[in-house]
Amino acid sequence: MSETVEVTLRPFTWDDLPTIVDIINRCDAVDGLERGLSESELRAWWTVPGIDPEANAFLATVADEPVGYGLVRLRKGDERSGFSKFVAHGLVLPEWRGRGIGTRILAESERRARARLDEAPTATVYFDAYADVRQSDAIALYTRAQMQPVRYFFEMVYDSPEPPATPVYPPGYGVRTFVRGQDEEVTLRVMNTAFRDHWGHTDDSLEEWLHWVNSQYFSPDMTYLGLDPSGEIVGVCLCNIYPEENERVGREQGWVDTLGVLREHRHIGLGRALLLEGMGALRRRGCTHILLGVDTENPTGALGLYEAVGFRAWKKQVTYRKPLR
Fold first, then answer.
1. Which pLDDT band, with edges at 50, 70 and 90, does 299 fall under?
2. Which class does domain 161-309 fall in?
3. Does position 244 have pLDDT exceeding 80, yes or no?
């Protein structure tokens, strides 16, 4: 390890947004994880209600030079989830790694989480951080902080030259696209309910959901709502194309950001049909690569479904965790 340096931490201000974006993109250029961001993308994320970066983000500097950053986000649970979690995000510029800066950022993130424990409404509270399995430096950092690997996730890709299969819906079931001003609350309710038996889930609030619905990064015409025979919404497939990301990675790709079906309507082919609906829409819009994320131990059989329609794993992430309460 190189010699440690004196690190100063200072609060984030919105004037720092370009600096944070520069840190993220310089890290991505070396790490090759395709996690770069534009200023508009980061602003959209950091203006989600509850993140409050002016209170919860900070820069790490050495001799007034920004060399890294940290952000701590509280995801509140309830009696159904049984837990809340503070999620630590952060990076250190590659040329400054190995000098104790990441250790300082992570320690400050944990300190901030512990200082906010009274904001968590549940008895159980965790401190989480994420890494790609190729990020050996981050994994070593989390291990030194007595965090444990608790769950793995695949990022999967469909890049077959063959078009996705035509969706076939169960008898009586159907599909339509999202209508602004009508479907916001029911769609959120279905997504939250569908994901409550998924590991690590905490419900999104209406304020968080409306932030995305009203942003430039939401596509109502690629948000497919599965309907039961009575016309009630019982499933959601939310897809998006991010042009700025595609320019960075140099390929035409789109995302199946969310796929969820209410438990009582699973295992009849509705999830598969909604997935194929979204995949077809993305391919018709020119996407050669269709991406999604999945828990490797997903209890609903999602991994098997994705493999069955042609997805393959191409990246793997891990969640590290420490109990705080």
1. confident
2. alpha beta
3. yes
CA distance 145 to 130: 13
Q: Does domain 8-152 have CATH number 3.40.50.150?
A: no
The total of other beta-carbon atoms located within 10 Å of residue 173's CB is 19
Identify whether the C-beta of residue 156 lies closer than 8 Å to the C-beta of residue 224: no
| Rounded Cα–Cα distance for residues 270 and 234 (Å) | 9
DSSP H helices, the chain, are 17-31, 39-46, 53-56, 101-115, 136-144, 184-194, 206-213, 243-249, 270-284, 302-308
Give the predicted TM-score (pTM) of the model: 0.95
183 DSSP assignment: S
- The domain locations on the chain are 8-152, 161-309
DSSP string over 57-93: EEEEEETTEEEEEEEEEEE---TTT--EEEEEEEEE-
